[in-house]
Input
Amino acid sequence: MPRLPPHLLHRACSLSPHLPSLLRVTRNLSEAQNELRWLTEAAASSSRQDSLQSQRSARSSRTRLERLIHRRAAHEPLQYILGTTEVGGLEFECRKGVLIPRWETASLADALARRLRSHEGQGEGKELRVLDLCSGAGTLALLLAHYLPAARVLGVDISPSAITLARTNLRRFQSKGELKDASRVEFRLGDLFKIGDLGRWDVLTANPPYVPVEEWRRLGRSVRAWEPKGALVPEDPDGWRGVNRRVWEVGRMVRVGVVLVEVGSREMARALAGEWIGVEGVESVEVWRDWPEEEGDEERMDVGGGREVRVRGRGQVRGVFVRRKGGVV
Output
């Protein structure tokens, strides 16, 4: 990584003695200033809770700020330090050992909810049932429960830490009135490759591990040193192909009509779309960008065999959407 220009470090130091430490992590002065503001607010908030005496509180705030900056200078993700992150209008709790919620997931959840909203409770006595695999902190499952209050949502993950945090976030949103009926949401510990009979579901979503180990080695230090490798890099011998093959098997087993899987690259989306478009019973396949509902350049992606799929939205490729015959949307 190239060294920071000396003039930029001098500029940061002239603004605050804390900024150079943050600048070495963010590599951007504006981002470093934002992070310093958030860390200062977090330190002050904690100190107000610790002490009612203003002088002692000020010293405590400075000491705590120094500790927070030291953690960030070690490349610990800001979300772990602050303890929360806002995604899709919900403030998720974050903890070490569980993948940090990303905004890209919220964008996909919003687009899927728009597709599903008119089909909630479709048919007499029928409720929309959503199965979310590799749930992590519960990001996609809880966003869909928030956007689709009448839906029943089940999240499954192999990590006990992730399931504990997902349940914590569920209680958090319930207490804040951000979920209409929290009893309609459940998180279970489960191995994707050992899932048994879960009954029938209408929609399957998944954010499975998809980062090749070679690419993981090139990721930023904040990711490699702090976020769980198992949530990013697939352990299956066939890598992301094997994991997504199993996701599709589970979808077929629970007889879903709609599948949405997050992907890490255009090449991955092309491969999955090309594989799934030829499966018996599949009616349509789309590739979704960052903002699937926004207008972007019209594109048809060649997935091989003389077949093409539509690429929706604007931004980078983020997901593959599949509708099976008889699906809910």
User: Anything to note?
Assistant: The mean pLDDT is 92.
